Amino acid sequence: MMQLRHFLAFGFLLCLASQPAAAATAGAKPAAPKPPVASAEQRAALHELLGRELIVIAGRALDPLPLRQLYAASDDDLIWLGREERLEALAAAFADAADDGLDLPTPLPDPFKVSTADPIERDLVLSDGALRLAAALATGRVRPQLIEEDWAIPAPSFDAAGGLSRALRTGKLAAWLAGLAPSDPRYLRLKAALAQYRAIAAKGNWPQIKGGPTIKSGGEDGRVPVIRQRLIAEGYLPEDAAGDNTFDATLEAAVHVFQDEHGIVGDGAIGVRTIAAMNVSVHSRIEQIALTLERWRSLPRDLGRNYAFVNVPGESLEIFEDGAPVLAMKVVVGDPGHPTPVVTSRIAALTFNPVWRVPLSIGKNEIAPKLKHDPKYLTKNDMVMKGAYTFEQLPGPKNPLGQIKFETPNKFDVYLHDTSTHATFQRVARALSHGCVRTENARQLAAYVLDAEKWPPEEIEKAVATTVTQRVEVQRHLRVNILYFTSFVDPDGTVEFREDIYGRDQRLRQALLGAQPALAGDGKAKPGVG
User: Fold this and answer.
1) Distance of CA 441 to CAs 320, 328, 431, 432, 447, Å?
2) 128: closest CA among 107, 102, 110, 103?
3) Were both Cys, which of 148, 153, 160, 319 would link to 327 (CB 3.0–4.6 Å)?
4) Which helix (H) or strand (E) holds 127?
5) Cα radius of gyration (the chain)
6) Euclidean distance between CA atoms 188 and 141, whole angstroms
7) Strand (E) or helix (H) holding 438
8) Domain 303-512 carries which CATH code?
9) Is the pTM of this model over 0.85?
10) Mean pLDDT across the stretch 427-452?
11) Backbone torsions φ then ψ of 407, nearest 5 degrees
12) CA nearest neighbour of 136 among 255, 19, 296
C-alpha cells in the first residue's frame, strides 16, 4: 500500500501541474480535479511501447494484444494516471483476490508491486494487471484443455479488454470486477470454507498423528489425546473436549463424522486411511479448496436450468431444477486407469435391456484372454463374438449395463447406466468402472426423464421385465455435467474432501506454478464398464 500511496501522490502532483491555476473563492467548494490528458510526448511513448512485439517492464512481460485493444478504446490516452477512484478500486480488487484463492499455489502478479517511476510504464503495468485479474476471475488462470486430454467443457467466453473498457467508461470498475467470479452457491460456500480454513491456519497447523495399530472404540492408546486435539482444531469436537487415553463414545462419534466427510469407510476406528486423512496439513486443505475454486472459474457460468451434476471424486449424482436439488444418488465412476472424462452432454434417449457392445480395448485385453483360457466363457456370460476382438453381451442379469442405459452422446462415448452389481454402492470408494457412470437408482432416473403419463413406474417395470431391447425417447433431454471437484461444501455448511483419484488437482497445481505437466492419457477416452 505504500507503493500505491506513492503512486497516487505522484499522479495527483502531475494532475495539478497539468491544470491552469485558479483563484480560490472564499467559501466555495473546490472543484474536483479533471483527469489529466496525456501529452503528445506521453502518447508517443505509449504508442512506441504498445507497438513492440514483446513488452517487458521491470522484468515483467505484458500481453500486447489486449493492451492495444484497451488503449485504442481509450483514445490512446493514459488510463490510471491521476484517476484515484480507479486506482483504489483496482487495489481493493487485488487485496480481495486471496478470498477467491488467487494467491495459491502462487499469487496472481500484483501490478502495484512493480517498481517503475515512469508514468507510461506504470500505466501499462496497471492495465495489464487489471486485465489478468479480470481474466483469472472470469475464466480461471489455466485452461484445463491444455493439461487434460479428456476434458471437453469449453471455457466461458470473455472479452477482458472490452469489458474493462466499458467498466472504466461507465465508472463501474469495482462492481464489474466483483461480478466476474462465479455466483453459484457452491462456489460461494467454498469461498467461505477457504476463509474458515485460513482462520484455522492462523492458529497454527493441527497436530500430526503417529502411525501404529488401529485404535477401536473403548481401547486405550497414547495417541488418543493428540487425535482429540486434531479433531478440536477442525471443529469436529468442541474446544473444551477433554479426556484421557481412552477412545470413548464422544470421540468415536466425531471420528465417524470425520470419516464420512472425507470419503472413508465409517467404521469409527482410527486406522491407516483415517490417520492419513487427519495428517493432511491445514495448508494443504487450503490449497485443495483454492484449486477447486480455480476449477469452478474455468467452467461455463450456466450449467443449465435443469441438469444432472455428477461429481466424479464425490462419486455422486444430483438432479437440479431451477438451482435446487430434487434427486440424488450414488454413482460408480472410472478407476484410476480408466478415468471418467470431464464432459457435458444431454440425455438423448434411454434403452431398456441394452446390449453391451464391448469396447475394442476391453475385448482385446480382457475378454480374449479369458476366452483363450476358457472356451465356454462366452456362453457362460451370455456373450457372442461379432469379429476379431469384437464382442457383445446380451441383455440379462449378467449384463454390466444392467437393465437401463441412458444415451448421452459425446466424443468420449461415456454414458450413464444401470448395473448388474448393486452391491458396489455399499462401498465408500467407488472408482471401479472402465469410465462410464453407473447409477444407483436407474429406474428413478428413468422415471424422471420419461413422459410420466406414458411411463409410470409400473410401465417401466414391465419394459424391464420383457428382457427385450427397446429404445425410448425421453421427455426431458436433461443436460448432464460430469465434473471433478475434490472439495465441496454441503448446503448446511459441511466441508467435505475427497482424494485426487486421477491427479487432476496435482496437474492443475503444476500448471499454476508454471511447470508444464505432461498431458494425461493418450488423447482417447477409455469408455466401457466394469
Assistant:
1) 16, 9, 17, 17, 10
2) 110
3) 319
4) helix 119-139
5) 29
6) 18
7) strand 437-439
8) 2.40.440.10
9) yes
10) 96
11) -80, 120
12) 296
Q: In the numeric block, which cell numbers belong to residue 323?
A: 438451482
Q: Which residues are CB-contacts of 499 (< 8 A; sequence separation ≥ 6)?
A: 263, 313, 486
Position 129 scores a pLDDT of 97
- Return the amino acid letter for 241: A
Peptide bond into 105 cis (omega under 30): yes
SS3 281: coil
Work out the mean pLDDT of the chain and round it to a whole number: 91
Cα–Cα distance measured from residue 409 to residue 519, given in angstroms and rounded to the nearest whole number: 24
Return the domain boundaries, the chain.
2-16+34-181, 206-280, 303-512
Angle made by CA atoms 185, 190, 195, in degrees to the nearest 5: 130
Cell of 93: 480488487
pLDDT at 24 over 60: no
Locate the DSSP E strands across 176-220: none
Grid cell for residue 481: 455435467
Rounded to a whole number, what is the distance in angstroms from the first to the last CA of the chain?
Answer: 58
**Which residues is 140 bridged to in the sheet?**
none
Say whether 303-512 and 206-280 share the same fold: no
Quickly list H helices, 355-421. 360-362, 368-373, 377-380
For helices 2-17 and 119-139, angle between their N-to-C axes, nearest 10 degrees: 130
Residue 527 contacts by C-beta under 8 Å, 6 or more apart in sequence?
359, 412, 413, 414, 415, 434, 435, 436
**206-280 CATH, one of 3.30.450.30, 1.10.10.10, 2.60.40.1930, 1.10.101.10:** 1.10.101.10
